[in-house]
What does this fold into?
Amino acid sequence: MADKSEELALDRVQVKKAVQALLAFLKTKSTPDFLLLDESQHLSLLFTLWKIPKQAQTIRIPLPHGIRTDTDEVCLFTRDEPNMTPDQTQRFYKKLLAERGVKNVTEVIPYKMLKTEYKPFEAKRRLLGNFDMFLSDDRVRRLLSSHIGKHFYERKKEPLSVNLRSKKLALDIQRTIQGTTISISKKGCCCMARVAHSGMAADEIAENIDSAVSTIVTKLRVKGPLIKIIHLKSQSSVALPIYTSNMNHLTLLEETKKQARTAMDAKKTASKQKSAKKEQKSTEKNTGAEVEEEIPQLVPIVPPSKKAKLETKKGLEKAPNPTGGKKAPNPTGGKKAPNPTGGKKAPNPTGGKKAPNPTGGKKAPNPTGGKKAMRRKSRRTKKAA
It folds into this structure.
């Protein structure tokens, strides 16, 4: 961190010239009414960074000379004390601040009072316009964002946390009030910090600028070259450059980019080589083993009806011929067997006559007398009727 502050060295002569020129310009633009009211304009530093930060950051900057006047009003948000009403907690913290010697805080608002009395939108707008700065107890700071509204953040008046249990409470509050803050976002490379007002002397403004730049450089979370240009401006003036970095930073940035590219290329080539080696090893293993995977044969799916038919057909197939399709040899050598009767008919034992009928040609008598047949006929006739 110390190396960064040594690299960025402000030319104090140039800074003082810019401050004097800006104060002379503001005097020419001021009106008699403006001088009678004793109003002063804010002087701010505009920082242009080489890179857009990857993370948002808020930096507190202590200044050797206070940038707020005694007429500025400060509001303090406190937590709710147990077993106390909002009015009792308000009186309790006012008494605590008076005992510790804190004189810059003009109003104390407990958390419960903020939720109830300042819930409407118009009440929040009035609260924002009535005070120049807001402080909050660090025990309730995380709870305030959902109750104060977005206008506090748009006007850059979000509450700054303070430890009310500190032994050096007056000194801490004085540093917070008389110091400043800078909000560095990750959406752009420009940021601004209030460092003085037009009612201060030129030497005091120059000292505040020097301390603000040194603290920002030491606390900024950015690698490599940090700040490109620093301008000084007021609310109604042109920005005057007080610092411009050397163009050597461009060569440094190009070198860092080239180094990053070469490193990426080396990684890619190494990964490709590893993948090629793995492929070679796998191919060598496959060729050395010479293992051929069997290709499974696809069998057509046959519905059950066809399967049954196929089975029946297979069952009805002809049995295989044991002779191999040849005719069996004839034992007679192809000749007819000799007739034992010598080709004549056998003699009839009855002498060609019919055998006599034992019943004498008559039918055998019916043992039932034909009664069953008569009953059957009568039943058939009844059914037909």
